[in-house]
Hints:
By secondary structure, the protein is α/β, with parallel strands linked by helices. The protein has one domain. It has helices at residues 33-46, 50-55, 85-109, 152-159, 166-185, 187-195, 200-229, 236-246, 249-257, 270-283; strands at 12-14, 26-27, 30-31, 59-60, 117-121, 124-127, 130-133, 139-141, 146-150. A 5-stranded mixed β-sheet has the order 1-5-9-8-4. Strands 2-3 form a two-stranded antiparallel ribbon. A two-stranded antiparallel ribbon has the order 6-7. A hairpin with a 2-residue loop joins β2 and β3 (30-31). It is globular and about 50 Å long. The protein starts with 11 loop residues before the first strand and ends in an 11-residue tail after the last helix.
Amino acid sequence: MEYENTPISSNIEDRRGQGGGGGIGVGSGGLGLVGIIVVFAISYFTGINPAVLMGGAEMIARHTGSDTASTQPATTGPAADPNDPMRNFLAHVMGGTEAVWTEVLPAQAGVRYAPATLVIYDGATRSGCGGARAAMGPFYCPIDKKVYLDTSFFRDMKAKYGGGGDFAYAYVVAHEIGHHVQDLLGILDKVDAAKERVSQTQANALSVRVELQADCLAGVWAANANQKWKILEQGDVEKALATAQAIGDDRLQSAARGYAVPDSFTHGSSAQRAKWLTAGLKSGQIDSCNTFAQ
């Protein structure tokens, strides 16, 4: 991925090196009793599956109860190192998403784009939606309009999911920014309201549609970014598609328990994730991402 010519974002909050602060106790043996109680409390108030909180993959953190966590004072972390390649890369990716969506969202949907903030951390931190842990994977919190990313996830992509590469990493960030775009379009609120009126299986199906749409919106970003800055190199798309397939619910569930339960899917199958990322890449249009009509 050629990203050096893309804009650099200042909306990066670096909390690495702060030694936790996520509000969920994690010892050398994993979650203790108190930690498990906290996880189920967060699950109760957010609607997030506790299995996801305790060791699942990426999610949207939804907070429907008390928002006291969002009032915690922000922490700044260590001074930014201008020679830090990870921070530099992420600043370019964020800058690229901001430049693209600032143009595309008003032009295609008539909505002004307000940038999100990317929080990078290690181990654990605090978000407006509650505690954030590395095991939760990257997520978007609509309460504080921030994306949370423990950068060790990129190492896990190589070791556990067979993914990796700059564009695959950018896809992960762009997927979370896709959730931010959904938030700005009012989609997340509508889905949350709809989930209150349906069964758990139907609610899971709605979650899948949200996630697949975020995949498609990541593709829309990539298509427009490539048109502006020629960011894609040979093999980039294939690596991103391999990553999308590797984190499909069917593949993750089969790896974890030997079989998959489609009714419990919350992110979509490997085939679905690859399909919708491809749809956005091919079209570059938000209208091509209506996963709810499929």
